[in-house]
Amino acid sequence: MGISSQLNADPKVIVGNNPDSKVIKLGIRNKLPTYCINDKNFPREYNSPDKAILEKMIKHDVNLIILAGYMKKLGDLILESYPNRILNIHPSLLPKYGGQGMYGRKVHEAVIASNDKLSGATIHLVNKEYDCGKIIAQCTVPIYIKDNADSLERRILNFEHILYSQALIDIGEGIINLDDI
Fold first, then answer.
1. Where does residue 107 rank: exposed (0-12), middle (13-18), buried (19+ CB within 10 A)?
2. Which is the catalytic residue, given 90, 108, 124, 161?
3. Residue 176 burial (C-beta neighbours within 10 Å; 0-12, 13-18, 19+)
């Protein structure tokens, strides 16, 4: 039995900020309520993208927000409405190589330039500071002599999928209690 068959979850809604993202296409393909909300297209009656996103979370009775590839900082409105219920994944061993501007390829380039021997992935709670929320789970990935940012990024991405899935299973089974972190 694979991880995907063990995850007892009911995805309720997908919200992305990039209309061309894979997650938007995934939501549509799987007939999930799917919205693209960003600074340019949010319904003006909400006064901000955050308010529009929060409305969708409430409308679809969301109890856990899982960020993956969402590159915008969430505002106070969402953070205060979902305390200890917003997860993010980062492609390094936080607190190293985190913070504003440290995402995607930039992280892997910095790791390679540092000559570190290990990198990895981190799942953390989201708070007001980039990549500074409490750490939920981490996994390490060795850095090989011939690694470059591309090879490291590809390898870590595989581990990110496994780590995120396992953390969600552990949350669902009560092994990880987000209120005790």
1. buried
2. 90
3. middle
Q: What is the pTM of this model?
A: 0.92
Domains of the chain: 3-172 (3.40.50.170)
The stretch 9-23 carries a mean pLDDT of 92
Report residue 72's pLDDT band, with 50, 70 and 90 as the boundaries.
confident
Q: What is the pLDDT of residues 107-138, one digit of tens each?
A: 999 999 999 999 999 999 999 999 999 999 99
Is 124 one of the catalytic residues?
no
Contacts of 96 (CB under 8 A, 6+ apart): 111, 116
